[in-house]
């Protein structure tokens, strides 16, 4: 995945506000990869804070994303990543040759209650497990997260 065979792969999750979907994906990947993947997240128009309902949904899995802050998408973050996964930001994500790009079509959890956010969270978890498999990384304690 990287030019250096001993370097760990890096993944960037991008959504518009970097407050819900991309933060949940980054939280799952950090935990389930056991540190075997460098994880970044960013937004094309970052919110002021993480979506509290996304935080609540992740805490149900024991994953705490409360300390995270929405970050602005930079060209440097894209260049530094092997895999760029977008979630509804469309053309605002810069494209660089040699990177793997995926667009995950997921409902935006903004303004939704926990009952509506849980299925989004669960779909993200499933996609993270698939991504880990594609990267050749066994998930760490996948049963609990």
Automatic annotation (TrEMBL):
InterPro entries for this protein:
Ptyr_pPase (IPR023485), Ptyr_pPase_sf (IPR036196)
Q: What are the Phosphotyrosine protein phosphatase I domain coordinates in residue numbering?
A: 9-134
Keyword set for this entry? Arsenical resistance
Q: What GO terms describe the biological role, i.e. biological process, of this protein?
A: response to arsenic-containing substance
Q: One Pfam family name from the record?
A: LMWPc
Name the PANTHER family for this protein: ARSENATE REDUCTASE (PTHR43428:SF1)
Protein name in UniProt: Protein-tyrosine-phosphatase
Which organism encodes this protein? Answer: Demequina lutea
From the broadest rank down, the organism's phylogenetic lineage runs: Bacteria, Bacillati, Actinomycetota, Actinomycetes, Micrococcales
């Amino acid at each position: 995945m990287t030019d250096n065979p001993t370097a760990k792969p890096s993944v960037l999750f991008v959504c518009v506000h970097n407050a819900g979907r991309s933060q949940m994906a980054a939280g799952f990947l950090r935990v389930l990869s056991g540190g075997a993947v460098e994880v970044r997240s960013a937004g094309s128009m970052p919110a002021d804070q993480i979506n509290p309902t996304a935080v609540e949904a992740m805490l149900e899995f024991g994953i705490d994303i409360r300390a995270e802050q929405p970050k602005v998408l930079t060209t440097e973050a894209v260049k530094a990543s092997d895999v760029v996964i977008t979630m509804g930001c469309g053309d605002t994500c810069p494209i660089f040759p040699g990177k793997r790009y995926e667009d995950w079509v997921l409902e935006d959890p903004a303004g939704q209650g926990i009952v509506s956010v849980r299925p989004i969270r669960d779909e993200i978890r499933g996609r993270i497990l698939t991504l880990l498999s594609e990267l050749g990384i066994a998930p760490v304690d996948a049963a609990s997260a």
